[in-house]
Amino acid sequence: MIKGVFYIEAQGNNERLVRDSIKSLAEKIRRDKDIKVEKEDFGEVIEDNGNFSSTLEVELEFSSFQAYVIASINYGPSAIEIYEPENLKLSSKEFLKAVGEVIRICKTFYDKYKVRFEFSGTEVKEVGLTDDEIEELIDQGGIRAKIVVEGTGKNRREAIRRFLASLPEDVAVNKVKSKKVESETPFSGVIGIDAILYSPTTLFDIAVKYTPVLINIIEPSEVKLSILDIQDIGVELAGVFFEIAFNLAKP
User: What is the pTM of this model?
Assistant: First the structure.
């Protein structure tokens, strides 16, 4: 079980709508079968130059890690404080199940609103690790995973280069493979990497931004998350979706 507090904010230029939206969200959380509400605290509606804001502080117990991850996306807390557990051990299968659900949600959302992340980067990661380097990184808490994404480019080489240049810094690439799907001259296909991710949180970052067509954890068989890892995963997921929704709302 995961226990903690979600701090949720509502803002707008209408006092009643702000108050109603925060109450409606609280009711939605209460109806969530995978969450147990331990305590609620509604903040006062505050006005500042015609803008109104209010907060909801809700103490929650989640039935599973996946339930926590989905709740972070659905309810968009601006801050999260996890009480317990201090450390969480998940089988790689259970961890991947949560990652897979994030990918599914992201694909549905991106397709609906026709949005995608724009990647940039000029420094291409070197490819190739020794067995000793792989073992050392995993001993330090890294995850070795096979990740396959869709890729495009003027040619195969450019598509691979763009992908490698856009990867987070805390990813060490061991091998790269690609397969062309379309027969036209520009490359359109899939790119796969065998890589070490320094932290479990990085896998969620990749899941959100790249929506891979396949992720498989090679090792270890058990993923260990600290209390800070759990908090960071939730906050990052909430933040990404809030930013996208905010940009979509712009005129």
Answer: 0.90
